Amino acid sequence: MQSWNDSLKIGVPHIDEQHKALFAAMEALYAACSAGKGRAEVIKTIDFLEDYTVKHFTEEQEIQKKSGYPKCVEHKKLHDDFIVQVKAIKKDIADNGATILSVSKLNSLLSGWLINHIKYVDTEIAQYVNK
Ligand SMILES: [Fe+2]
């Protein structure tokens, strides 16, 4: 698993701090999985993500708008899609309990979507904010 490192910084400190917090949640989930406690941690992680991503995405979108970043609308769709996926996993857990499958779905979502989004989509914002 990729852990947080400076290459993930996009160069906008407020956003970088929030990405770091998202990574910390992902790392805690991985650590719990390694300790055989993934199913307990997944509920905590999903509750955190549901609140924190809404706050983070809202603030990131505000920063984008103020900076004149031209892809605000497309970018918001990506954020909304992530929230839909988090909510679907949450519903799955509510319906079926925290299963190995729900833990692995959340792990894949975080290690795939989150890392790619930061590296390849969010990095574009910095050139507008820091111009
Ligand atoms: Fe983003």
UniProtKB/TrEMBL annotation:
Protein name per the record: Hemerythrin
Signal peptide: none
Start and end residues of each Hemerythrin-like domain: 12-126
Native organism: Acetanaerobacterium elongatum
Keywords: Iron, Metal-binding
InterPro entries, alphabetized: Hemerythrin (IPR050669), Hemerythrin-like (IPR012312), Hemerythrin-like_sf (IPR035938), Hemerythrin_metal-bd (IPR012827)
Gene3D superfamilies: Hemerythrin-like
UniProt similarity note: Belongs to the hemerythrin family.
Recorded superkingdom: Bacteria
Pfam families the UniProt entry points to: Hemerythrin
GO molecular function, one term: metal ion binding
Cross-referenced CDD domains: Hemerythrin
